[in-house]
Amino acid sequence: MIEVKDLSKKYGEKHAVNSVDFTVNAGEMFAYLGPNGSGKSTTIKMLTGLLEPSSGQIKIFDQTYSLDDIALKKRMSFVGDTPDVMGKLTGSDYLNFIASIYEMEENRYKEKRQELTEMFNLEDALNQLVEEYSHGMRQKLVLTAALMHEPELLFLDEPTVGLDPKSNRLLKDYLKAHVNKGNTVFLTTHTLSLAEEIADRICIIYQGEIKALGTLEELRSGSAHSLEEIFLELTDGEDVYEQTTLEN
Amino acid sequence: MNKQLLKIEFKSTVNYFKSLETAKIIVYVFLAFIIAMWLLPILWMVSSSFFIQADNILIAKALFIITIGLIIVHALFLVNGLIKDLFMDSSIKSMLLLPLKPRSLFFVKIFKQYILKVFPISVLLSIIIGFPLYISSGSVIILITNVLYFFTLGIISLSLSYCLVFLVTKITSAKKVGEILTFLGAFLSITPYLFIFMGGQNLRPIIDALPDFSFLYENVLYGGFSIKMLAAIVVCLLILYFLSHIVITAVTNIFTSSQLESTVVKSRGKEKVQVFSRTRSLIQKDLQLTVRDFKEWSIVLPHYLFPFLFLFLISSNPAMFGGSSNPDQMILAISLAGSVMISLFVSAMNTARDARDYQFYKVLPIDGKIIIRAKYLFNSLTILPVYLVINILMYLFIQASLSSLIYAVIISILVVLTTVPIGMFIGTINPVVSKKNPSNRLDIAGNVMITMTVFIIIFAVGRVSSFFFIGNDINHQVILLTIGVLFITSAISAYIILNRIAKRYDQGYHITYKD
User: Fold this and answer.
1) Which residues of chain A form beta strands (DSSP E)?
2) B453 in helix, strand or coil?
3) Most B-contacting residue of A97, A108, A130 (CB-CB within 10 A), to test interface
4) For chain A, first and last CA: distance in Å?
């Protein structure tokens, strides 16, 4: 589904992402973790074509991906780290616009829209301007827009930021079901419990390099460590962790 | 505490000026030079010759008009800045959580506004009005009363602007108020022309019709020494003290009591669940973004007034037509010049707006050709009907012949269709994205291109339109030939330029992100 070989991005002399290799399989929930500034967003932007790699290769659906490939883009969705939606559209206008651009069949659109807006408890806000929405409501709206055409490949950059606990739970369940249907989700998050709970495989990136990649069991490699402990150990956060533990 | 806060505000202001681009600094220095070397001396000359020579009744009337005009205009201008500084500034909320007194915070904010936006006006008026009155009376106390009077007017304007803001934010959100005021501000930018061209002629009858205000100003701002002067000084000082206290207290109370937290949430009618063609959905999206945003109106609508300015220029300067003109020639000249100017500017601005959401479009499954086709249709469909109405209004105003109206309409349509792609092209040359100032969308090169074109058109259009006439009669052959040429150029322009812009969209283009 996604094949990344020797992918690098340099800003001047600094490597934001340095020679990264990984594969994401069809029907997999893949969590991409790392501390702030580790290269998560840079990687996801390169995968979605928003940023040109300095070197390396990206294949999506066995094709070299480019933003010009409209047919390929129709099979994907991307939710960025900030839910930027044109403020002067209503939620309904925005969803109509996205459905039109993805050329969704009208009845299917109505059905999915109802399902998702009900799930996120967004129906009553749909005829308000987006600029009047809270951060969480905007996040729900962009998630609805990204999910309603049932993409085979979904990129989510910090999807749970701003969501209330109920929506958070429902989103997790929805994503699990979505993956069970054979679709793929590539997810970046700081919420380690989210990755621990729903990801099939986890990749930890630090200072632009992959530090660990595998299932949770493989990362634990037989130990009883939690994902948080493994994460801190791999990202030089262990010292902080130990200090905090001692203080407590 | 106040000292620390003032230091921070001072530093942020200095940093703002430090971060300005060289081009902007040059523009500011140039403007300051023009104001210091040209505008101020002219104001001083006009004002001093008037206030030194005019009789007392006329001086009183002039002072009254200046007082009323200044308070209203100054308050309106202050409102916009005030909304940006207090309502749109998210740092206020976080500053309120710091261990400092809210009153100190708002005192500093209001003080900054006063120093930057009120104090210079008060000083300017004290110089151009107070000084001549001091010279004519020879009494220092006259200068003191004038200075105090104009400083008091400044505080009154500031207080009025706060009143206006708090009153209107009860009705709608501060953001909407900001949009409406930007919209009004754009129209206000045309008012100096109206004052110069029309107001000047009517000022004298207005002054004559006013009652005598000498009882207010004589022996206070001009004339000889009297006890009234001392009373005026006391009154001004009291107003200055109490109004500044009231403003600071009111602003602190309103902001800290969360009275501004309730935003007005408006439902936009019944929601429609519909899937359209991609082109139609893009046009509809553009239409919604334009119609619902007063800031967009403020960018676009004032340009539709320029044909009327052309009408004024043409009718008052027959030299533009080589010495003579007739209504038919005027309507054709305006249809040419106005449609070029409007379609160039409006389509450039509408296209440059997309830079803000460029990343969003890039991840959508849609290619540049569809986006550009939709944008072309949106621009043409929004510009053409308005310009057709303008043509009809012109026809009614100047009583041209029906055949010239028909030609003007056809020429306008073809000129718009030819020029819109050029405007769109300019809108994709390094567009600017500024959250604080969304109307600032074109870079210097784009603005220069449009301004140069407009100047050339203003000077050339009279001569060009004279080719359509033999004496006072319409030369149908030349006009039909022009229409044929315009028809071909509109097709070529749409094909070649739109394809180039679509490629630009697909390949990516340079965008400057400000603030």
Assistant:
1) 2-11, 14-24, 29-33, 55-60, 63-64, 76-79, 153-157, 184-189, 201-206, 209-214
2) helix
3) A97
4) 45
Distance of alpha carbon B103 from its chain centroid, rounded? 33
Contacts of B98 (CB under 8 A, 6+ apart): none
pTM of the model: 0.72
- Looking at the complex, report in whole angstroms how far the Cα of residue A90 sits from the nearest Cα belonging to chain B: 8
Q: Do A100 and B266 touch (CB under 8 A)?
A: no
Query: Given this model, what pLDDT does residue A27 score?
Result: 92
Whether residue A166 is predicted with pLDDT greater than 60 in this model: the reply is: yes
Mean pLDDT to the nearest integer, B121-137: 87
Distance of CA A53 to the CA centre of its chain: 19
Average pLDDT over residues A135-152: 93
Tally the residues of chain A.
Answer: 248
| Pairwise CA distance, residues A21 & A209, whole Å | 9
Distance separating alpha carbons of residues B459 and B14, to the nearest angstrom: 42
pLDDT digits (tens, 9 = 90+) for A171-192: 999 999 999 999 999 999 888 8
Q: Do the Cβ atoms of B272 and A68 come within 8 Å?
A: no
Chain B: which residues have CB within 8 Å of chain A?
175, 263, 265-278, 280-282, 284-285, 288-289, 292-293, 357, 359-360, 362-367, 506
- Cβ contact B44:B127 at 8 Å: yes
Rounded CA gap, B426 and B418, in Å? 14
The verdict on a CB contact (< 8 Å) between A104 and B275 is yes
Mean pLDDT, rounded, for A195-203: 91
Select the more confidently predicted residue: B268 or B375. B375
CB A185 within 8 A of CB A26: no
Please determine, for residue A5, whether its predicted confidence score (pLDDT) is greater than 90.
yes
**Domain segments of chain A as ranges:** 84-150
Closest Cα in chain A, distance from residue B180 (Å): 14
Tokens read off for A98: 């996205």
pLDDT tens-digit series, residues B80-91: 677 777 766 667
**Looking at chain A from residue 128 to 187, which residues have their Cβ under 8 Å from any Cβ of chain B?**
128-129, 131-132
Residue A21: predicted pLDDT: 93
Beta bridge pairs of residue A29: A185
Report how far apart, in Å, the C-alpha atoms of A18 and of each of A31, A99, A156, B269 are: 18, 37, 22, 52
Euclidean distance between CA atoms A218 and A201, whole angstroms:
9
B11-22: burial string, b at 16+ Cβ within 10 Å, e else = eeeeeeeeeeee
Q: Is beta strand A63-64 parallel, antiparallel or unpaired with respect to A55-60? A: antiparallel
Which residues lie below 8 Å from residue A154, measured CB to CB, with a gap of 6+? Answer: A76, A77, A78, A79, A146, A147, A175, A178, A183, A184, A185, A186
Q: Which two tokens stand for residue A76?
A: 């994907």
Note whether ipTM > 0.85 here: no
Confidence of residue A248 (pLDDT cuts 50, 70, 90): very low
Distance CA B264, CA B357 (A): 26
Please indicate if any CB of chain B lies within 8 Å of the CB of A82: no
Kindly tell me if the per-residue pLDDT of B264 is higher than 70: no
Residue B258 identity (one-letter amino acid):
S
Say how far apart CA A235 and CA B190 lie, in whole Å: 60
Domain ranges of chain B: 55-256, 278-514
In this predicted model, what pLDDT tens digit does every residue of B42-59 receive, in sequence order?
Answer: 888 888 888 888 888 888
pLDDT in tens, B474-501: 888 999 999 999 999 999 999 999 999 9
